[in-house]
Amino acid sequence: MDIRVSAADEPAEARPGVERFNTLREVEARIRELAGGAYSVLTVHSPKRKAPDPARLATYLDWLAAGSSWRTILPRSVLATPGYLDYSLVLHRAGDLHRVADVPVQQMVIIDRTYAFVPAVPDTYAAAALQLTEPGVVAALADLFQQAWDRATDLELACESQPTDEQRQVLSLMSSVDKDSVAARRMGVSLRTYHRHVAHVMSRLGAANRFQAAARAKERGWI
Fold this sequence. Notes:
Low-confidence stretches: 1-9
CATH topology of the largest domain: Endonuclease, Chain A
Strand order of the largest sheet: 1-7-6-5-2-3-4-8
Number of domains: 2
Distance between the termini: 60 Å
Number of strands: 8
CATH superfamily of the largest domain: Endonuclease Chain A
Largest sheet: 8 strands, mixed
CATH architecture of the largest domain: 2-Layer Sandwich
């Protein structure tokens, strides 16, 4: 019997232009190897990004100082990760231009428009990743990046649209405290002032009710 195996059934290692890395350490080591001498790096971060590692900042700054061109797209939700915004601003101001996306974008890294890295399993953020080198595939991903980049907001402008600490407190109270009178006491303001704060936050979010305000605040990474 002649059994034919389709490309979709082949392991990644058997497909031309595809190499699989099964651990985060392997993926990061390969990306650092290529990015260190690259002239162009395009990156879309995961919405489940962990807090940044300050120890790596000096390395990235050295690459930028050497003339490497970087562009990075951040999901808005990661701006609420402790330390992430300040870390990103340092890179942004050093030349790794950052923009913030309000809609989901495929997580990826593209180096010199020759190598592309994507999650091994779509819509997940596990450690395994695929390195792609087929020119047509890499070009398509670069086009996808550019479309997302054109729709995204400059990081400096996105910072201006972030809520104040007081507004974050109001949002937190709205989602965790049932009675407005209790929330007002915790803020140390009158009930009337608290209601004014709530109305202002809902207006900023374009929310018709508190449930919608909480949902939109979570989408934007405000809480």
